[in-house]
Design brief:
Layout (H helix, E strand, L loop, with lengths): L5 H26 L15 H34 L2 H12 L3 H34 L7 H32 L3 H24 L6 E3 L4 H12 L4 E7 L10 E4 L5 E6 H6 L2 H16 L2 H23 L5 H9 L7 H42 L3 H13 L8 H7 L5 H11 L1
Parallel strand pairs: 2-4
Antiparallel strand pairs: 1-2, 3-4
Helix pairs in contact: 1-2, 1-12, 1-14, 2-4, 3-4, 4-5, 4-12, 5-6, 6-10, 7-9, 9-12, 9-13, 10-12, 12-15, 13-15
Length: about 425
């Protein structure tokens, strides 16, 4: 059983505060939904579409509140019944090796979380998204996606976890070396993902020769964007929602457009969206986020070192709070992540604010690159209406979760950029 100490109080207050904050943001977001179609969206949304968007928001809000409440309850019950200590004992009983026991502990915990989350994923995909016409995934595709994800986690995640656990158990200045290993792994994975991992889930077809491809290549040349390929991704395999992105490290980039985006957009609108994505590259956003992410992970690994130090007072206090006797890297990793969740949320607020600033800069770049912001504005309005997005989200919800500015703010900026 856990020992109620200062650390216990901090963690319990933190997780409850996050839950209450999310609940408040959800309720405020429901109240802020407009009663009539905003003038800026009059061309792409009518009253029926607005009512559908309101219902989509309401159902997802209720679903999110149930899901978060279940997650919080499961955590508190598992914690209160000594689940972390019991699972650690089970893992150690299955293997005399601390490293293998650690992998068993983390694998069982991950599997348990996946099983608890599976009904929610099924309901969201085949009930909510299906009801509003978004879902195109079949049960076979859904199951294969999960199996592929588990296989990748085993093939890539377990060796990485084994390396990190071994380092924390055997190497001096372990946090530093673990950070180096994870950072290198992430960079390599980012480089390999477009060619080796993403094709496992989606089909990427080179865009056929024609006016659209020529226009995209001309835009890349005009923006001095090192474009090495233009691909169409079968996003319609799973959803009617549309998007576009570019992949690749270094000087050679590949652009991928969802087939649904091509179906729903005019050529100028597509070029506006792509100019926005190129704007992130030209404004240095990708490089900036990469550097900040690496530095942030270094701080996290340093703190993780304190949370797994078998001779440290901080680690002892943390493990006592969760009722675990033996200090170990694998249990410490999980307990530290629970403790870190409120801090992560705060850092996420700052990161989202920074991201929204970057989105405004990318919009301005797109308006300059294409001559005006009209095409991008039309594309954004269509995407918002098609996705049944909230036209006027509450300020608290934006502050907490929005990595992109609300649509009306982006449209106002694009009018200035003309």
């Amino acid at each position: 059983m856990s020992e109620w100490n200062f650390m216990t109080v901090i963690i319990v207050l933190g997780v409850f505060a996050l839950w209450k904050l999310e609940l408040a943001a959800t309720l405020l977001n429901l109240r802020s939904f407009p009663a009539r179609v905003p003038d800026e969206l009059a061309g792409v949304m009518d009253t029926a579409k607005l009512d559908q968007a309101r219902e989509y928001l309401r159902i997802n809000a209720r679903f999110g509140m149930v899901q978060s409440s279940v997650s919080l309850t499961v955590l508190l019950v598992f914690w209160g019944l000594g689940g972390f200590s019991g699972l650690d004992g089970l893992a150690r009983g299955l293997s005399a090796s601390d490293l293998v026991a650690g992998l068993i502990f983390l694998s069982l915990l991950t599997l348990g979380q996946s099983l608890i989350g599976m009904p929610f994923a099924v309901y969201e995909t085949f009930i909510i998204e299906q009801r509003f016409g978004f879902n195109r995934a079949t049960p076979r595709t859904f199951i294969l996606d999960r199996l592929k994800g588990l296989l990748l986690a085993a093939l890539l995640g377990l060796p990485l976890l084994a390396a990190v656990l071994w380092i924390f158990s055997n190497v001096a200045h372990s946090w530093l070396w673990a950070w180096v290993v994870v950072t290198v792994f992430q960079l390599v994975l980012t480089y390999l993902a477009p060619s080796w991992i993403m094709p496992l889930f989606n089909k990427f077809t080179p865009m056929p020769e024609g006016p659209l491809k020529q226009a995209i290549e001309s835009l890349g040349e005009h923006c001095h964007f090192p474009l090495s390929g233009v691909f169409v991704m079968d996003g319609s395999k799973r959803s009617t929602k549309a998007n576009a992105f570019f992949t690749g490290l270094g000087k050679r980039k590949k652009i991928a457009l969802f087939d649904t985006l091509i179906e729903k957009s005019t050529q100028p609108e597509l070029l506006g969206v792509l100019a926005h994505e190129i704007g992130h590259f030209r404004c240095g956003h990708i490089r900036q986020r990469l550097v900040v992410g690496i530095v942030q992970s270094a701080v996290i690994f340093f703190l993780l070192g304190l949370a797994t130090d078998p001779h440290g007072a901080f680690a002892r206090l943390l493990f006592n709070a969760f009722g675990v006797e033996t200090i170990s890297p694998h249990v410490g990793l999980v307990l530290f992540l629970i403790l870190l969740e409120p801090v992560t949320k705060l850092l996420g607020v700052l990161a989202n604010a920074w991201s929204r600033h970057h989105e405004f800069e990318a919009d301005a770049y797109a308006a300059h690159a294409t001559g005006n912001g009209d095409a991008l504005a039309e594309a954004l309005k269509k995407l918002s209406a098609d996705h049944l997005s909230h036209p006027t989200p509450a300020a608290l919800r934006v502050w907490l979760d929005y990595s992109h500015p609300p649509l009306l703010q982006r449209l106002a900026m694009l009018r200035v950029a003309r």
